[in-house]
UniProtKB/TrEMBL annotation:
This is Gluconolactonase. Binds 1 divalent metal cation per subunit. Residues 14-263 form the SMP-30/Gluconolactonase/LRE-like region domain. The active site is at 209 (proton donor/acceptor). Substrate binds at residues 98, 116. SUPFAM superfamilies: Calcium-dependent phosphotriesterase. The lineage of its organism: Bacteria, Bacillati, Actinomycetota, Actinomycetes, Pseudonocardiales. PANTHER family: LACTONASE DRP35, LIPOPROTEIN-RELATED. Belongs to the SMP-30/CGR1 family. One of its GO terms (molecular function) is metal ion binding. Coiled coil: none annotated. Its cofactor is Zn(2+). Keywords: Hydrolase, Metal-binding, Zinc.
């Protein structure tokens, strides 16, 4: 499996999503949400988010939700294109908001950094929050080591990648949106003993960043620490590995047949370096199993 470049010239890409025959993604430091066709043509600016966009999702009626990282809000794009505040998490999250997954009822599960990553603060755990369609915010899980890429499975579970936890954690989602039966879905190594980010990173076997689910229930994970994409089954077995020659930080399955693995690539995740350059790319890799 080899990677080809679909689009380039961005700062730092995150949260790829396949929807309406287009690949959608956020660019942190150009402060915009984009979409394009499978081959990268017809690039569109879908929204401008001055406080840094990240996770994307859609309400059942088709309105777009966007994580606004720095002011810890979730924005909603109305049918006329106006962005309004859907939910305010300033009094809840302990770091920049990050990735998000939205279920079929319009409930959004959103993680946050938990500490000042770019300011070189020591690692701290973070909570996961649920935002209901009316904007109500509820804490649904605690003590997660950087809750990052998340997916909802067909059997009613939520999988959350803990970037600094060396693992993917699973929860069952109840009818009212609560998370129960917390368990380790895949463990790649122990939680790092170091709390300085630079010292913790070498202790990570896999640093789960953005992820996506395929039709066989396996998880494609962008390993943010080792410049690779890995396909993992429950229990932690790696069945496939793609090394595109660059660090990758998020992925999504899509394309006309669901077998294109889109990946967000950049030289690193350093805010100062990425905001000053336009070296990020959107990659595509053909894989055998389509998206879920």
């Amino acid at each position: 499996m080899t990677a080809t470049t679909v689009l380039e010239g961005f700062s730092f890409l995150e949260a790829p999503r396949w929807r309406q025959s287009r690949i959608w993604f956020a660019d942190f430091y150009q402060y915009q949400v984009f979409s394009a066709r499978e081959d990268g043509s017809d690039l569109r600016v879908e929204a401008t988010v001055p406080q840094q966009p990240s996770g994307l999702g859609w309400l059942p009626d088709g309105r777009l939700l966007i994580v606004s990282m720095r002011d810890r809000r979730i924005l909603r794009r109305e049918p006329d294109g106006e962005l309004v505040t859907h939910a305010e998490l300033n009094g809840h999250a302990t770091g920049h908001l990050n990735d998000m997954v939205v279920d079929g009822r319009g409930r959004a599960y959103v993680g946050n950094f938990g500490f000042d990553l770019m300011g070189a603060a020591p690692l701290e755990t973070a909570a996961l929050h649920r935002v209901d369609p009316d904007g109500t915010v509820t804490e649904v899980a605690t003590d997660l080591w950087f809750p990052n890429g998340s997916v909802l499975t067909n059997d009613g579970a939520l999988l959350v990648g803990e970037t600094f936890g060396n693992r993917v954690t699973a929860f069952d989602v109840t009818g009212d949106g609560a998370l129960v039966n917390r368990r380790i879905w895949a463990e790649f190594g122990p939680v790092p003993t170091e709390r300085a980010v630079g010292k913790a990173l070498p202790q990570l076997e896999i640093a789960p960043d953005g992820c996506c689910l395929d039709a066989e229930g396996a998880l494609w994970i962008a390993d943010g620490a080792h410049a690779r994409l890995v396909r993992v089954t429950e229990g932690g077995k790696i069945t496939d590995e793609v090394r595109p020659g660059t660090p990758v930080f998020a992925c999504a399955l899509g394309g006309s047949d669901g077998k294109t693995l889109f990946a967000c690539a950049a030289p690193d995740f350093d805010e100062h370096a990425r905001s000053a350059a336009r070296e990020a790319r959107l990659l595509a890799i053909r894989v055998p199993v389509p998206g879920a």
